[in-house]
Amino acid sequence: MKNYKHFILGFVTATFLSAAVIGVSASGLVKDITAKISYEIKTVLDGEEFNPKDTDGTELEPIIYNGRTYLPVRSLCDALGVSVGWENDTKSIILSTQPNNNNEDTIVTINGENKITLGEINLYLGQIKNQYESYFGPNVWEQTTEDGQSVEQVAKDNAISAAQSSNLIGLIAKQKGIKLTDEQQKGIDSQVNSFMSALQKESTGKSGITQEIVKKTMENQELYKLLYNKEMKDYTVDEEKLNAILDQNVQYKRYQENGYEYYAKKVRARHILIKTVDDSNQPLSEDKKVEAKKEAEKILVKAKAGENFAALAKEYSQDPGSKDNGGEYTFARGEMISEFEEAAFNLKPGEISKVVETGYGYHIIKLEEVIEPTEEDIKAIKDNEANIKTQAIEQLKLQAFNKKVEEWQADYKIEINDEIWKNVKISEFEF
To answer: Distances in Å between the alpha carbon of 119 and those of 43, 209, 224, 272, 279?
Structure first.
């Protein structure tokens, strides 16, 4: 993936280009600028002569010093339609045909007054970029989704949507008379200081994320909580809708069908794994799978013959998580892959399984003991069941709240500056 650079806003270094034949290389495009050492300057752009003009429309005046002719690099680049920036690491002037987006540019307006700048959206872009690359790797931006949309566009949509929602909620909350207390404001200020301190250690300074932006975002987050609590304090659960959600939760249904003790009971078992996947969890060839099964069957013979199972696990097992402790795991139902779990729970203490195949490979399992559930174990299962139900209720409450927000949003006009936004590249973003 190409490593593009963003440009520093407000580049003011007093640098001039000597008037001579200069090749300006910018992302593959070369523009020839021809200048004569005189009071006249001739500029040729893509083979055609033209008179460069400054941003205010006036013709660009050369500067004569010690018999040489100079042009201001910023004004010249504006005339050529080329962006210019300063790269501090290499102490270089960077010219590019890519738009030099200004972090103070307004990307979104709400009701024509409330503005969301590129710098503010960058706060969301940075977080999303880190999350995507953490999960999917740095080349994720070259990928497309199942429906053919670029991953980059999906990420951008998420970022701008989050920024819009945050600002919209802040406006709605204030309109409904919700205000932050002095104590809440003090807490936000402390969080902002901590965030900015951490950001300054990691930041290249190119994102345009200011303390004011971070404070505004955190204030909107707090206003969201206050608005949500105010609007949903009298919410009544629709039992039919709640049951529909719970019916889709496999774990909740299992608790209902099998009881608490069934899932609170644990076993302590050892196993030996001969893998049928590589270190990247990609399947091995069929030939290698056959070899793996033969090896597992040979080890099974040794185990059935009475050889020390823990020692066999240390010698042969390819499971790094349990190899060093003799292949031992203690677990309850629902914690292991289903084939492994079923085989282990169907054994008697001291009994050794046949070769069990899972998506990881071939296992040989020995049950050491069955651990009957304590009252504390059963309570933990009940607590988990209650938590599943609480989450389902919160899901319904959030759906109801979002419906209210959609209704309120009808009173707000949201406009996006597509000309700037379309040129923003998350793959090029730097904190």
So the answer is: 36, 5, 21, 54, 41
- What three-state secondary structure class fits 167? helix
Q: What SS3 state is found at 96?
A: strand
**How are the residues of the chain apportioned to helix, strand and coil, as percentages rounded to the nearest 5?**
45, 20, 35
The string of DSSP codes covering 292-355 is HHHHHHHHHHHHHTT--HHHHHHHH---TTTGGGTTEEEEETTSS-HHHHHHHHTSPTT-B---
- Give the model's pLDDT for residue 54: 52
Residue with tokens 């349990």: 322
Residues in the chain, total: 431
415 token code pair: 């406009």
pLDDT, tens only, 297-322:
999 999 999 999 999 999 999 999 99
Measured distance CA(69)–CA(335) in Å, rounded? 76
Strands (E), 15-132: 16-18, 22-26, 29-33, 43-45, 48-50, 63-65, 68-72, 83-87, 92-96, 106-110, 114-117
Tokens of 46: 């893509």
Compute the mean pLDDT over every residue in the chain, rounded to the nearest whole number: 81
* CB of 324 closer than 8 Å to CB of 333: no
Spatial contact of 344 and 367, defined as CB atoms under 8 Å apart: yes
- β-strand partners of 414: 110
Return the CA Rg of the chain: 32
How are beta strands 43-45 and 48-50 bridged, if at all? antiparallel
Listing from the earlier edge strand, what are the strands of the sheet with 414-416? 114-117, 106-110, 414-416
CB 176 within 8 A of CB 398: no
Give start and end residues of each alpha helix (H) in 97-150: 118-136
Q: Which of 85, 104, 73 is nearest to 6 (CA)?
A: 85
Coil vs helix vs strand at 402: helix
Closest by CA position to 85, among listed 74, 72, 70: 74
Closest listed residue to residue 363, CA positions, set 275, 287, 285: 275
The answer to whether the beta carbons of residues 117 and 216 sit under 8 Å apart is no
Cβ neighbors of 301 (< 8 A, separation 6 or more) are none
CB contact at 8 A, 385 and 252: yes
Helices and strands, counts by H and E, the chain: 13, 16
**Structure confidence by residue, pLDDT tens digits, 39-79:** 344 444 445 555 555 555 666 555 555 556 555 665 556 55
3-state secondary structure at position 358: coil
Residue 145 has pLDDT above 50, yes or no: yes
Please give the structure tokens belonging to residue 144.
């497309």
More confident residue, 420 or 75: 420
